[in-house]
Fold this protein.
Amino acid sequence: MLNETYFSGRRKALLERLDDNSAAIIFAGSEQTRSNDTEYHFRQDSYFHYLTGYNEPDAALLLIKKQNNSQVILFNRDKDKLMEIWHGRRLGQEQALKCFELDQALSIMTLEAELPQLINGCDSLYSLMGKCQAHDKLLANTLTTLRGGTRQGLSRLGKHQDLSIILDDMRLFKQSTEIEVMRHAATISCDAHTIAMQRAKAGKYEYQLEADILHHFAQNGARFAAYNTIVGGGDNACILHYTENESVLNDGDLVLIDAGCELHGYAADITRTFPVNGVFSTEQKAIYNLVLKAQLAAINLIKPSGTIKEANDEVVKIITQGLLELGVISGELDKLIEDEAHKDFYMHGLSHWLGLDVHDVGDYFNKERTRVLEPGMTLTVEPGIYISPDSDVDEKWRGIGVRIEDNLLVTVDGNEVLTSGVVKSVDEIEALMASNN
Ligand code: GLY
Ligand code: MN
Ligand code: MN
């Protein structure tokens, strides 16, 4: 359960990693205007959520670690009867002290005034630098106040450090409670993909399949998608982040669906590609099976001591060789691999970390992603082949876009596929779709 025991545990773990005699500040998100005086639905900042589970905007968490005596202080919005009548409940400071393990709860209105005194005497301040200009400015003002206040008993801070170096690494390794939530998010999302396969048919609009998916998310406890749902029929499947979802689905086309729910802040990120009419054509099947072969090979390589790069190198080899054998491309295999011929058809990365953000935080070490995998990491495996309609290949291949994406947990022995609850072989997909007609 992601309860206060869990969140206070995260704060304690963070405090342990901070330098002695330091302070760290993490800001909540703020509401964003959608139109005129209405806002997008508020989504908490992932770092703030990770440390508090508190879902109000305009707040800040301050951790102070001085001579083995640590303090946790929350700044949040004041109670306000009129605002609460119009816009919703506010926890306020009194309730915050009851709900959370805090040493103090103070009004967010007092943050800028209180901060210099609270962190005075610390050697360093950690923050998520560069994330929000307003917050950076507030902290710069705080540093200026400390520097200029020596006659008032203030002392300058020696260091201002980037907290993301510590927090990103913490977030990269999932605790058992987080993994439970991610398994659940994966299950809900798998079932939504199954429903989409069952409900697809020619004449239906892409956004109607999207609606089927979102409906299932909400009916099962996940009110929101973790990212904008992609439902791309036909050529639209070749647009990697297609989210217009406004076209009609056509008989004979494939449809690519990339959708995952957000549950208690955690994302699932699944892609399945299937024929609108339930039966793959010869060319669609050939490309699909090639992507699947590459994906299964990559999944086998996701294990402790493996790297994303190794898995991707294998995918590139399989895809290049497969496209060559099918006659989509021509040339000599080694030369094609050396020339990165796959990039015309497989132009994105194989994998990304997954967690509170769909593209979760965590250092990959470099562009090739050579970080050695360790138990507790969660990531996607998502090769694809996209043959755009204007591609310089035999016409029969044009407009076929396929991605297959699963979510994995690296375990001591290898990996656990969190998203195995939705079919992905040609036979399984065709059988599922046939059973529905
Ligand atoms: N849904 C975005 C991605 O797969 O990375
Ligand atoms: Mn995806
Ligand atoms: Mn992904």
About this structure: The longest strand covers residues 69-76. The chain has a mean pLDDT of 97. The chain has two domains: 4-171, 173-435. Residues 227, 258, 269, 352, 358, 382, 405 surround glycine (ligand 1) (CB under 6 Å).
